[in-house]
Design a protein that fits this description.
Length: 92
């Protein structure tokens, strides 16, 4: 029997690392996901997906998140050396 529901995709390790970094910065700001998402202008469930690495967010959303955190956009990203550890096959 063929599966007719939505197939669950594997999460991308780089997106998970990005989401973890954004979560860390948000938590340092002292805001809940709901409060932060409202300030950024994103739906809370969409924003939660960013932090879980389920969303490949646009540059505009990265800029909005960085602006709300009062950070440079580059501060949102994990280091390349960390990303190499997370998923060697993508960077070797």
């Amino acid at each position: 029997m063929k599966y007719k529901g939505k197939m669950k995709k594997d999460k991308n390790p780089q997106l998970i690392a990005l989401g973890e970094k954004i979560r860390k910065l948000r938590e340092e700001s002292g805001l809940s996901q709901e409060e932060f998402a409202a300030q950024v202008g994103l739906d809370r469930s969409y924003y939660g997906g960013i932090e879980r690495g389920e969303r490949n967010l646009s540059s505009l959303n990265l800029i909005r998140i960085a602006s709300t955190l009062q950070r440079e956009v580059g501060d949102l990203f994990p280091t390349i050396s960390y990303l190499k550890i997370v998923d060697k096959s993508k960077f070797d």
